[in-house]
Amino acid sequence: MNVRRRHISTVALTAVAALGFGTLTACSSDSAAAGDTGTFDVVASFYPMAFLAERIGGEHVHVTSLTQPGQEPHDLEISARQTAQLEEADAALYLKGLQPSVDEAIGQSPIATKIDAAELTALEEHGTEAGHGEEHGDGHEDEQAHEDEHGHDHEGGDPHIWLDPVKYAEVAEGVGKAFQKADPDHAADYRKNTATLVKDLEALDEKFRTGLANRTTDVFVTSHAAFGYLAERYGLTEEAISGLDPDTEPSGARVKELQKIAKDDGVTTVFYETLVSDKTAKTLAGDTGLKTDVLDPVEGITDHSRGEDYFQVMEANLTALRTALGAR
């Protein structure tokens, strides 16, 4: 989602795809012809989809993620051999508009069950500075930057639905129904697992609501506009440094604008991510006298993640937001 992705070499992408294929082959050799093991073989596009498949499928599914731990999911390019392996799966779970190469591969594959998470909840448009158009200028330049930044295939709306526990729960319910239909022998377990996951997501939503209820500011600054749904859910305003390569300093105009926002709205922190460079965030923080911290978009779990799964990382995000927003 940062412009740096447009400059990654084809060689690098091919190498990444080859690594992805290695894992896919290793897993699929056991179960790609799912009938061989009695498991329902699911290929997930990236971590948030794989997490759903694993939690809902339980012991009945074999889940393979096309995106490797630590790989920025938008960088993924599917190799021809990965495509061939993909075609052997029983189901594909993906989020259309996030990874164009995955969309194309799944669209052309003969997989009987194709589950598009984007169709299981309502997608919305989110700009870089919702709610600040009148207060801090017309925002047209930043809106255009947002469009450029999300220029893969995001015309249908912001794809970051998993960062809103309520929307993620809606997707979980849809995935559960799809699993029940595709693998009816285990429908009762899929239904039970889905209900448990939804309850856990409802509890997470409540933690965010209560944890952010008493705060001194609504505004937080991020390296890119991934948290629009989360901000909208809990009455916050995300200010994103969008359309800028993370390896370069932000523009003088944007720094000046963010300095004003920080002063007017009591911003204390510039958030950066775990899978992209923190240079831009630290440069902005230095220029504005703000602190830096991690706000993880949970696109993948690595050794650097503040937790071992979706729930742990989201709770770490809540802790970081509470500190930055002065929540009591």
Task: Provide a brief overview of the structure.
The chain has 328 residues and is α/β, with parallel strands linked by helices. The protein contains eleven helices and eight strands.
Q: Which sequence of strands runs across the widest sheet? A: 2-1-3-4
Distance between the termini: 33 Å
* Helix and strand composition category: alpha/beta
Strand content: 5-15%
Give the SSE string: HEHEHEHEHHHEHEHEHEH
Chain-averaged pLDDT: 80
Would you report the number of β strands? 8
Largest sheet: 4 strands, parallel
Sequence stretches where pLDDT stays below 50 over 5 or more residues:
1-36, 128-154, 243-247
- Principal-axis shape: globular
Number of helices: 11
Q: Measured on Cα atoms, how large is the radius of gyration?
A: 20 Å
Helix percent reads 40-55%
Oligomer: single chain
Short descriptors:
328 residues, alpha/beta, four-stranded parallel sheet, 11 helices, 8 strands, globular, disordered N terminus
Task: Explain this structure.
45% of the residues lie in helices and 10% in strands. It is an alpha/beta fold. The longest helix has 25 residues, at 187-211. Helix 6 runs antiparallel to helix 7. Residues 1-36, 128-154 and 243-247 have low confidence and may be disordered. The radius of gyration is 20 Å and the shape is globular. It has a four-stranded parallel sheet with strand order 2-1-3-4, sandwiched between helices. Strands 6-5-7-8 form a four-stranded parallel sheet, sandwiched between helices.
